[in-house]
Amino acid sequence: MADHRTPAGTDTATQAFLDHRELLFAVAYNMLGSVADAEDVLQETWLAWAGRAGAGEAGQAPEIGRPRAYLVRITVRQALARRARIARRRETYVGPWLPEPLLTDGPDGPAAGEDASAQAVRTESVSLALLVVLETLTPLERAVFVLHEVFGYAHTETAAILGRSPAAVRQLAHRARTRVRARRPRYQAHPRVRRQATQRFVAAALGGDLAALLEILAPEATLWMDGGGKGQAAPRPVRGRDKVARTLTGYAARSAEGLRFEHRDINGDAAVVVFADGSPHAVMVMDLDPDTERVREVYLVTNPDKLSAVDPAAPGGTPPEV
Predict the structure, then answer these.
(1) Cα–Cα distance measured from residue 302 to residue 87, given in angstroms and rounded to the nearest whole number
(2) Which one-letter DSSP state was computed for residue 284?
């Protein structure tokens, strides 16, 4: 039988990278909102790490006292560099842009064949609604928020990663928290309440029950549909309970035939995945008002390029070759 173990000359460097891959993917994804871009960042991080490791004797990893800190620093800096390219792509994107949804549930833990990408987001889930809010931050504010609020890095550690002073990082963190909390309350509805509301909402929307939808939706509800010019979607956000309800019932009437629906967890939240011919057709995620428990935001992703990470046959992309 062939020996598939890593070659001895690269084993130390490879193992160090693989030991931290889940964390690195989660950091990159939360900074970028895109699986494909996060995977590209990991590839670049691996190349930088492998090049550094190559400086060691016999190809072993160099004497870096904290490989995790080194790898996270490279990942964050690569993600910040990629933000500029993402911004240019957004200028020509058709319609509203939403983060790429990720499946974060499974009946028995990670699905068969699931790679570290999906496992990482299950461990450090950032909701689709929060990712939308994070898009309003500057790249540095987002990096500081993700490292501190999601992964628990101290400001001194974040300062070392970003090459900024601790005082500057504290200012960035304060601005980021203020902007995030202005858009998204700190206390959210209980997960059980969210799941029940999601099930009621989906039943009403897909069943074309306009009266039930109007009861569930908050007066200021907004519907965001991301089709990227490839999937069915509204060209701009739909605002107001009546317009949202009518748009959703119209969408259901045009799309319902031959579709299958599953209640799943997306980015740690209750959601519904719509399948057509066995492949993902759309993902719908609802965000509730924590006071009234009515639906205030609806995120509907129909761009096929953003649905591979919710397909059990293709979870999370492929890891960098090592």
Answers:
(1) 21
(2) E
Structure tokens at 154: 């101290």
Structural element, H or E, at residue 298: strand 295-301
Q: What is the pTM of this model?
A: 0.84
The sign of the CA dihedral 32, 34, 112, 199 is positive
Q: What residues have CB less than 8 Å from 54, skipping those under 6 apart?
A: none
Task: Give CA–CA dist 88/79, Å, rounded.
Answer: 15
pLDDT digits (tens, 9 = 90+) for 196-246: 999 999 889 888 889 999 999 999 999 999 999 888 888 899 999 999 999
Query: What is the number of alpha carbons within 13 Å of residue 144 lying toward its C-beta?
Result: 28
| β 217-226/295-301 pair status | parallel
Give CA–CA dist 309/122, Å, rounded: 13
Dump the DSSP string for 159-216. Answer: HHHHT--HHHHHHHHHHHHHHHHHHS-SS---HHHHHHHHHHHHHHHHTT-HHHHHHH
pLDDT band (50, 70, 90) for residue 109: very low
Alpha carbon distance, N-terminus to C-terminus of the chain: 21
What gap in Å lies between CA 6 and CA 199, rounded to an integer? 47
